[in-house]
Amino acid sequence: MDSRFAGDTRDPAVNVTGWVLLVTCTLSVLVRLGTKFQLFHKLHADDYFIIASMIMGAVQCICVSMAVSFGYGKHFNLVTEADFIVVMKYLYSASLVSVASLALSKLSIVAWVLNLAPFDRLIAYITGLAVIIWALVAIMGSAFQCAIPEPWNIWSGKCFNLMAWQYFVNISNIITDLCVISQGLFLAHQLQIALKKRLLVSVVFLSRLLLGHRLTHRDSVIGSIIAELILIHNSITVVDPTYQSCYITIAQSLVQSLSIITASCAQLKPFLTWLQPKELQI
């Protein structure tokens, strides 16, 4: 039997979870695009943002999968020094494209709201700007988290406080998500449509916060980010980096995938056909 699946190892969990989530969010995007083509015979700015987000998500999944192939998920003492360097490089790349994917999925929602309510652009522009600033700060900070020429070397390199940085990135991620949700709720309040439809618009945006309806909300975007923060807090002392960090990687993949999936919910046929075309303004 392949040794990868033998003994105390987390690499199957990381790999399988990542690919299952990628397939799921890819299907959600394809259904979304198919619906838009069927109803409007063209794509819009929000669709291109979500396509770019999905591509970045695929790159992130490939990077994590490559890290697994070099020993990520196994105990540190079973991974050679050369392989561990490769693992760190792939995880470094994955962290950068993951932020890009998250930002693009948020911008997809912002662009869709702008199409839905072009009469009130200021809030959409402010929200979009906040997302872009967050993404630039998060990407630049993560890109130079450790000293050049080894910015990927979080194990023996000279780095700033990585745990504090992860807290900042994730908490600011929650804040930008709340801004996106608030933008959607404001839109629902402003639209001159029936109360039932207005509530539906609100539910679509609140899905990023409440999806799953469980006490922990771990199946929502924000709930998954909180779960990631808890995992980061619990890994203050890391002595087995290729093994202990795996659940954090899984949480990151879950956040990324749910962000894409919830951004596509409002583009599914039942929702788009319920709202009249004149109300969609697209």
From TrEMBL:
Listed InterPro entries: Rhodopsin_dom_fungi
Stretches that traverse the bilayer:
16-35, 47-70, 90-115, 122-144, 164-188
Q: Name one Pfam family in it.
A: Fung_rhodopsin
Keywords of the record, alphabetical order, are: Membrane, Transmembrane, Transmembrane helix
KW Translocase (keyword) present: no
- Which ranges carry the Rhodopsin domain? 32-272
User: Per its record, how is this protein called by name?
Assistant: Rhodopsin domain-containing protein
